[in-house]
Design brief:
It is a single chain. The protein is α/β, with parallel strands linked by helices. It has one domain: 3-Layer(aba) Sandwich (Rossmann fold). About 50% of the residues lie in helices and about 15% in strands. The chain has helices at about 10-25, 35-45, 65-75, 95-100, 100-130, 150-170, 200-215, 225-235, 235-240; strands at about 5, 25-30, 50-55, 80-85, 130-135, 175-180, 220. Strands 3-2-1-4-5-6-7 form a 7-stranded parallel β-sheet, sandwiched between helices. Helix 1 (about 10-25) links the parallel strand 1 and strand 2 (about 25-30). Helix 1 crosses helix 7 and helix 5 (about 100-130) packs parallel to helix 6. It is globular, with a radius of gyration of 18 Å. About 40% of the residues are buried.
């Protein structure tokens, strides 16, 4: 049975993704900072067929505790076959502009904490010469935009980090998938007016599950964001800087 660690298990996208792994009978360690939400998700996944589920309460910004987390999974589950990294915050761009401490918090949450977990689990999988990693980044990292460039910076850094990790671990049989969602109708985007480009968490979760099973390297979800971002990246800077995006 697959032994799967889920970082940010209370996120809507993570929950929808791991429903599929639960149906496969996976053993799951669900990591998040909200114990109540973890318990609700644990109960839901139990009825879907997961062989074993344990919640693990942790604020992922406490990177000094990541080593204990990974070692717990190794000791109690016998190793890590699959890792899904799905935690993060959208953040307040205006607040970040006004106070660099807010910017640092966003970068720590959305990039540094992910890089820490990926380093530890990547090393574990490299030693075992097997495993699968999926990391949720964002289309926001494809080009900096005035409306959310702090969040976009974290996503760009995460995407580059995961790309390098994929290049390194491919040589030992470990697959690493970068997931770039566009707009998804989740609690994170509750304050954003909805439009036809928004996808459901269920559709995104299913796409991630299928991409992991197919050992893909990178996906945009929904698929059309690949072409939207191609257009955005192609706009000349002299024009782009006059746009309000």
């Amino acid at each position: 049975m697959l032994k799967m660690m889920v970082i940010g298990a209370t996120s809507a996208i993570a929950h929808e993704t791991i429903k599929h792994f639960a149906s496969d009978g996976a053993e799951l360690l669900l990591v998040g900072r909200n114990a109540e939400k973890l318990d609700i998700i644990t109960q839901d996944l139990q009825v879907r067929g997961a062989k074993r589920i344990e919640p693990y309460v942790l604020d992922l910004n406490e990177v000094d505790k990541h080593g204990d987390l990974v070692q717990y999974m190794i000791d109690e589950f016998g190793g890590i076959d699959v890792l899904l990294v799905a935690h993060g915050t959208l953040g307040d761009q205006a607040a970040s502009e006004a106070d660099f401490a807010v910017t640092m918090q966003e970068l720590n949450t959305n990039f540094i904490s992910a890089a820490s977990i990926l380093t530890l689990v990547g090393n574990h999988m490299e030693q075992r010469r097997q495993g699968s990693i999926a990391v949720i980044s964002s289309v926001a990292g494809d080009r900096g935009r005035g409306s959310n460039y702090v969040y976009g910076t974290a996503m760009a850094a995460k995407t580059a980090f995961v790309s390098g990790l994929r290049n390194r671990l491919a040589k030992v049989g470990v697959n690493v998938l970068t997931v770039k969602p566009g707009f998804v109708d989740t609690p994170m985007t509750a304050d954003i007016p909805k439009n036809p480009l928004f996808a459901s968490p269920a559709a995104v979760g299913e796409a991630i599950y299928k991409a992991m099973k197919a050992e893909k390297s990178e996906i945009y979800v929904p698929f059309y964001w690949r072409y939207i971002m191609l257009i955005i990246r192609s706009i000349p800077e002299r024009i782009f800087k006059r746009l309000s995006l």
